[in-house]
Structures are given as C-alpha cells and as structure tokens.
Amino acid sequence: MLSVRRLVAIANAALLMLAAADEPRPNVVILTGDFGSKENARLLEPLRASGTSFRNCFGSSQSPKTLASWLTGCHELRAGIVDTVGGRNFIRPAVPLVSDAFKAAGWQTAFFGTWPFGEAIPFRPEDRGFQEVLVDADGRSGDYWGNNPDHPWLRDLKGWSQRDGKRAAVLETETRRWIETRVAAKERFFLMLNLPKGSEGSAKALLEDLDRSGVGANTLVIALGTIARESKETPDALAPLVFRWPGHVAAGRVVETPVAVFDGMPTAAALCGVSLFRDWKGDGIDISGLGKEPRTEPVERSFFFHPGGWPADQVVDRYKSDGYAVRSGKWRLSGLDLLDVSLPPEHRENVFETQPDIAMRMMTDYGIWWQSIRPAFTAPARIIVGDERQPVTPVTWGDWWPSRESTTALGPVRYPDQASLRGLLRELADPARSSSLPSVSGVWKVHANRTGHYKVSVSKLPPGADPAERESLGKLHGGMAHARAGKYEVKTPLLEGATALSLGVDLNEGDADLEVWFEGQGAKDAIFGAFFATIERMGERKMPDPDWKPQTKENGGEK
C-alpha cells in the first residue's frame, strides 16, 4: 500500500506536470553575427534593456568555432572544428544540433545567412535539422564563385540563384516572409539568422515587426556575437550574449558570472521546454536561472581553451600545450603562468611557483578534459558521395586534407577563401612566377554510400565563374591528370588550354581518400590539385574490385 507521503509526492508531481503543460512554448529567433562592429553593436542596446546580458561569456575569435559551439552545446574541438582559418570546418555528424532538438519537438526551423560548415552532405544546414535554408558562405571556399553582396547568389533547397538587391535586404525580405507564413499557419517557429555585415538595420526592423505584431511577447530572442573580442587573457575571448523573453527572462539584468557560448543550446532548450537527446553529451549547462527570479547561480566550473589549427596530418598530442588556457574561479592558467584575474591587470603577478597546489589541480583538470575531446580527432568527418539526396556532390580546395602525393604541398590553411585562391591562380597563370611555385594539393576524405563507378569532374575554377576569368585563370597546360583513391590510380593526358576534365574512378562502399592532381602546370616536379570538383555516381563498377582474391580449392574454386 502506498504511504500518505508517497501519495502526496505523486500528487505534487502531477500538479507540476500540469503546470508545465500550461507554460507557453515560445517562438525562437537567434541572431548571430559580429556584434563587435559599431553597426551591429547598436542592435544589442534595446535587447540588453529588455533582456539579460551575459558580460563574461567565453567564445572564440573565429566565427565558425563560436557558431559551432552554439549549435552543438559543445566545445568547438569536441564538435569537430579544429581549423582556425577556414578549411574543413565540419561539425561531426554524430554531434546533434540545437535545430535537431527543436525540429523533433515540433518547431518549424530555418537558417538564413552565412553557413560556414560546408555545402556537401552531411554538413549542409538542411542535413542538420533546418527545414528551410537561404545561405551563402561569405566568400569562403564553398561560396558561389565571385559572390557579390550587392547582387548576391544565395542557395535555398532548390539550389543557387542570383537575387536582386543587397544581400542584407534580400535576407530581411525572405525572413519576414517566412515568419509571416509561420504566424498565419499558427506554427511555432525556430529561426536562426547569421547576420552579414551591414545588416543591423534589417535585424532591428525584424525585431520591431515582431513586437508590433504581438508575436514578440511570446518569442525568445537570443543575440550572440560569433566573433568574440580578445579579453585581457587570450585565448579566452569574450562573446556578447543576450537573452530576451518578456515576463520569463529578467529585463535589464547584467550577469557577471562566467558562462560560455556552448551553454546556449541547453539554456534555450530549458526555457522552451524542449528535451535534448537522451545520449546528448555536451559541455554546456542550463544557465537560465541567472535570468530569472529568484536568481540561481550554477555551480562553479572550469573552462578550457585551445586555439586548434594544428596540421591535420600530425599527432594532435604534440599540440596539446600550445596556446591553451584554463579558467577556474578567479584563477587563469596558461602554460607556466598562473594569474589571479580578479585583480586589476596592473596588479596581477605570476604565482605559479607560490601556488603549486592550484596550478597542479588546474593542469590535471586540463589533462582530463583533453583526453575527453581527443577521440573527436581520430575519425575525421567525411563528405558523403553517391547519396540520392545530393546526386552531384561539390568539393573544393577548402575541403582538402594534406596531400598524399606531395609531402611539401600547401593546403587549405594558406588559402581558405576565394580572394586568396584568386591570387594563387594569377601566379599559376604567369609563366615567370608559376615555375617557382611549390606544390599545392590535397585529399578529399569521402564516404561512398554505394559501390560504383564515379565521375569526378575537375577544374581550376567552378562552372559558375565568369567566362573571361575562366579564359585568363582557368586554363590548364598540357601534361597529365591523375586521380587516386587509396592505392589505386587512373590517369589521362591533359589538353593544352582545357578548362575542365572528367575522370572515372571506381569506389567501394565505405571510406576513401580521393586526390586529383595535375602535372606540367608549373615547376618541373610540382603538382597542383583540382581546386574544384563534382563527384557523381554513374553506375556499377567498370573494373573488378582490385581487392578480389583468385579462386582456389581452399576457398571453394578450382586451381
């Protein structure tokens, strides 16, 4: 028989469940961008006045890393972002995104603006829980070639198309249209808008529209600075973070408690009553109690920082101690420097030798944390080819891993954006300069969904490049083209003046390292990789699997 105490507990739990069911579940608008600029900073002023601002929110000085932390609730290294300058910024598919959680809970989801995480499956926003997208890559390797913010090319679920007007204005119009459609259909929505430069006016108008229509009263607005500004203690940079939800988040409150960008995912989920996935293992915690009454402080914790950016073919443990930092309470440890950051900068002294117990504890905590994130580096995220969702898979030089054909070849670290690549192509087109250039090549790490014969179409410039630029920068010299997948290689002669070439390779289902390179383009022994390619499955294998074994009496055949 149940005791009276047990019955009371069950009754109280039932009442709490009923109360939770009556709680409103808000729309969500997340604004991300460079809020360190004067223009975008103005957007934060009214939000800070009507919401809770976190003054000590740790982020990263690199936009993709901060954005990845927000989307995943994980430190960016755990999420898979290890390159600080723009190449291979892939969020590992096994790491769920906040959009996955809200989509599963019934919200209509969308991502508009700059998406820096790749244009191939499984890294596109539509692969990661966003049902509607309107994106570019802001001049990075996956962007439409030569994209112009005055007449932008943007990609939606149907593909790339050029739009009339400035990029910020186009995004404003499409964002309003999407929200109006959701409101008219009485659908709860989750919108993430990664603001391009110069769009603060559009974002402000959007917020005013929400408030004027009455939708803003039940909309959780979150503003996050994706390019954090270096604090006095780099690399632990500070990112502006503001939460606003009238009646649910305190207005005008400034929080000094240290928090991190990865706290955003569990906090937004908690405020909206969204359950995270059962096996979710993130670094963030729910900090919504800091913006409520009565205020609740989280337990004191340590924050860990590492700039990343080590060469992709190196053992990561070699770089474990390069540029790291740990923050724990008032203490900051970096290398052999231990500082009390509660003191004014001019009064801080290195107390590493006089406080050995604190230093050792923080170093031990960092070592444990490093081992916890290390598995994320051992299995690189791979681009999927041969998938019906994306029959023609685009890859670029920005997706390269270090070349297998040249140990001295430069890769994406030096040339992460289109402007830098255009400069390299000018050097390649100049006979006097190309003869002294080192090799430039790299490997695409792919996963073939199906065994078959794949057409790899390669070029120095993509098909969308201006014809005049293709004529001046895109021509190939006579020589030889090679394609290697693992230890098997195909090659074909290059025609002088060609601007594109297709090669056929057989791939088995599973992982493969694919590299395509050209000889005869510059220095005698230099090779140059295909900067752009598309990969398409054409049918079954053309040749027998080279891993086959001859039939013998021992394995069931005749000798």
TrEMBL record:
InterPro entries: Alkaline_phosphatase_core_sf (IPR017850), Sulfatase (IPR050738). Residues 540-559 are annotated as: Disordered. One of its GO terms (molecular function) is arylsulfatase activity. Residues 1-21 form the signal peptide. It comes from the Bacteria. Belongs to the sulfatase family. This is Sulfatase-like hydrolase/transferase. It comes from Luteolibacter ambystomatis.
